[in-house]
Design brief:
Elements: E1 9-13, H1 18-29, E2 33-38, H2 41-51, E3 54-57, H3 63-77, E4 82-85, H4 101-129, E5 132-137, H5 150-170, E6 175-182, H6 188-197, H7 202-211, H8 222-233, E7 244-247
Helix pairs in contact: 1-8, 3-4, 4-5, 6-7
This protein binds nicotinamide-adenine-dinucleotide.
């Protein structure tokens, strides 16, 4: 079967579930060889086996692990063409006055430092190739605040800043860097957030969030996000770099 990504080598972080799994699936369907990275070993191995792709267990917040997953990709396939820098965590929801330094640092380590480390290591491979496409997973939290969610909000604003900086650094080498900014998407993370918002009635939270979305009155799906990611990774997006791409059912259009 021939596809848009025949012969391409892709690395996807957070690949055991949610958006990362959906992107890995679409990339594999369209011909890419995918290096699937996650810290959740059992789930990752099961997912990679199902897709027939290469699993690498790594914590994206750790420098040695990040250098390790990039080395594993290059050792296996000799190059990296596509990178979905996606792994992230939501952390604890609470007003700033009730957060510990550890609460902040935990989210920052994965969502901020992890995205930086991934960009740094992958750009080192892509620059000599003089080609590559990268999509970071930001969030609508990259463009707006939210009470009781400051570490996550700050980390996703940082993803937008890292995206712009990397696009400027990569541009002269033919490397494109964008970020996606999903709204409410039905994954493990979104379900856990409904429990944090109201442990007594997470289903009620899910329903009211769904009703707040202008388009279709529902959460998005991981596959809908993956469809945007793979467009941005594809040659069809050849002139798109340095920008944020909302996928939120018009939630932030007002
Ligand atoms: N679901 C949403 O509504 C939503 C909206 C906007 C942005 N996002 C962002 O999308 C990304 C993916 O989220 P999701 O909804 O698919 O969540 P998810 O929890 O379903 O999947 C995240 C995956 O990342 C892995 N992961 C987490 N921390 C890791 C680490 N340090 N090292 C390696 N792997 C790690 C997890 O094991 C999991 O497999 C995150 O960056 C999240 O912030 C999600």
């Amino acid at each position: 079967m021939s596809g848009r990504f025949d012969g391409k080598v892709a690395v996807v972080t957070g690949a055991a579930a949610g958006f990362g799994l959906a992107t890995s699936t679409r990339l594999a369907e369209e011909g890419a060889r995918v290096v699937m990275v996650d810290w959740s070993a059992d789930q990752l191995h099961a997912a990679a086996e199902k897709l027939g792709q290469l699993p690498v267990v790594a914590d994206v917040s750790q420098e040695a692990d990040v250098d390790g997953y990039v080395r594993a990709a290059v050792d296996a396939y000799g190059r990296i063409d596509l990178f979905h820098n996606n792994a992230g965590i939501e952390g604890r929801m609470a007003p700033m006055t009730e957060l510990s330094v550890e609460d902040f640092d935990r989210v920052w380590a994965v969502n901020g430092r992890g995205v930086f480390l991934g960009l740094r290591a992958v750009l080192k491979v892509m620059k000599p190739q003089r080609s590559g496409a990268i999509v970071n997973t930001a969030s609508m939290a990259a463009i707006k605040g939210a009470a009781a969610f400051s570490p996550y909000i700050a980390s996703k604003h940082a993803v937008l800043g890292l995206t712009k900086s990397a696009a400027l650094e990569g541009g002269p080498f033919g490397i494109r860097v964008n970020c996606v900014a999903p709204g409410h998407i039905d994954t493990r993370m979104a379900r856990d957030l409904t429990k944090q918002i109201n442990p007594d009635d997470p289903d009620g939270v899910f329903e009211s969030v769904s009703a707040s979305v202008p388009l279709h009155g529902r959460y998005g799906t991981a596959t809908e996000v993956a469809n945007l990611v793979i467009f941005l990774l594809s040659d069809e997006a050849e002139y798109i770099s340095g920008s944020l791409h909302l996928i939120d059912g018009a939630l932030n259009a007002g």
